[in-house]
């Protein structure tokens, strides 16, 4: 009986058996596994953009309103822990309470029980700078008002608080008709 031996042809597709490595095509698997597959993201819904834009607008409007809202300086001074008070009688009747807070660098003047202003006139509240270099109007009171509270800031720059009688529409400078002048302590 004849035993046949099998020999691989020279042009064998994978080369000779001794040339074969243990790769067995795993290199292709490694290459494929190193590719990152991006997870599919859901498209942004139109309503999400509308809600986001609406939130931005609402937050912006709220911030603007808060920034433009006048502060109640007089209320803050009255509630300050370091507030000091000085009560003074107003010429012609009524009282004034000057409140100062150094921690807030602010003050307030509360006027009460003022007599009616002379005909065609009203009361106007002013602050005078140190040295009398300038005077600024704080408020022109309604001619029928008998009480008011006015706040002011920058105590170190203010020498005194004045109340004068002025024409109904107010004045750009105080008249000589002072009904109250209180010097701030420095």
Description:
The protein has 186 residues and is of the alpha+beta class. The protein has a domain at 73-183: Immunoglobulin-like, CATH 2.60.40. 21% of the residues lie in helices and 31% in strands. The N and C termini lie far apart (132 Å).
Poorly predicted regions are: none
Placed side by side, the strands forming the largest sheet appear as 1-2-3-6
**How confident overall, as mean pLDDT?**
81
**Proportion of helical residues:** 10-25%
Strand segment tally: 8
**Structural class by secondary-structure content:** alpha+beta
The shape, in one word, is elongated
Measured by DSSP, the beta-strand proportion falls in 25-35%
Summed up:
Helix content is 21%, strand content 31%. It is α+β, with helices and mostly antiparallel strands and 186 residues long. It is elongated, with a radius of gyration of 43 Å.
Layout of SSEs?
Layout: H1 26-34, H2 46-68, H3 73-79, E1 84-89, E2 95-101, E3 106-112, E4 121-129, E5 135-140, E6 148-153, E7 158-167, E8 178-183
Antiparallel strand pairs: 1-2, 2-3, 3-6, 4-5, 4-7, 7-8
What distinguishing features does this structure have?
single chain; 186 residues; alpha+beta; Immunoglobulin-like; four-stranded antiparallel β-sheet; 8 strands; 21% helix; 31% strand
């Amino acid at each position: 009986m004849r035993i046949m031996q099998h020999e691989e042809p020279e042009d064998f597709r994978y080369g000779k058996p001794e040339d074969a490595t243990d790769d067995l095509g795993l290199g292709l698997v490694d290459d494929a596994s190193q590719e990152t597959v991006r997870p599919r993201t859901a498209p942004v819904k139109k309503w999400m953009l509308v809600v986001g834009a609406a939130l931005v607008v609402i937050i912006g409007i709220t911030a603007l309103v808060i920034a433009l809202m006048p502060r109640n300086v007089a209320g803050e001074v009255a509630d300050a822990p370091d507030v000091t008070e000085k009560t003074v009688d107003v010429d012609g009747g009524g009282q004034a309470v000057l409140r100062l807070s150094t921690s807030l660098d602010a003050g307030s003047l509360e006027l009460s029980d003022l007599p009616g202003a002379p005909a065609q006139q009203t009361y106007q509240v002013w602050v005078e700078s140190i040295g009398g270099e300038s005077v600024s109007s704080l408020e022109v009171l309604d001619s029928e008002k008998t009480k008011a509270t006015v706040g002011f800031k920058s105590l170190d720059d203010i020498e005194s608080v004045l109340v004068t009688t002025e024409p109904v529409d107010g004045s750009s400078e105080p008249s000589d008709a002072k009904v109250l002048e209180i010097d701030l302590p420095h």
